[in-house]
Amino acid sequence: MSVAFRRESDDEHLEPRFELPIPPGPNLVTTRGRALIDERIADLESALAAAEGEEARKAVARDLRYWKTRRATAIETAARADGVVGFGTCVTFTLDGRERRVTIVGDDEADPASGLLALSAPLARALLGASEGESVAFNGREEAIEVLNVG
């Protein structure tokens, strides 16, 4: 029989499942962010114990490895208290005539719809280092953002 017609196993034709990508840079977390990571790990450990089938276990184990890595590399960081926008601070600002309020958090805690903005987001990077009453550039426009309150 020709080698062209021989098939060793079905596994050799499956798409590879890569690990979940870890965001670059330090893994800064708030106290709330650290608690969320711990909750996620507990949920995944329960799911792994209850998983039926090899594929289900592999998928849960992959997610669990990601979250355990995030917990191991977490650097719990307190918010700045000096009135300057930084990690963990809540900032109220105007952008395009609309007032918004966000808290700058770690990548895994981010939820823009809830006002939790990742430190790595372009808007958060534009706000970093600003103080109340200061205007900062954003999206190619000078003085696009006016910082109203930092706290």
From TrEMBL:
Entry keyword set: Elongation factor, Protein biosynthesis
Gene3D superfamilies, per the entry: Transcription elongation factor, GreA/GreB, C-terminal domain
Classification via InterPro entries: GreA/GreB_C_sf, Tscrpt_elong_fac_GreA/B_C, Tscrpt_elong_fac_GreA/B_fam
Keyword Protein biosynthesis on entry: yes
Skewed-composition ranges (Basic and acidic residues): 1-18
A GO MF label: translation elongation factor activity
Region feature (Disordered): 1-22
Residues annotated as domain Transcription elongation factor GreA/GreB C-terminal: 82-149
Protein's recorded name: GreA/GreB family elongation factor
Taxonomic source organism: Sphingomonas citri
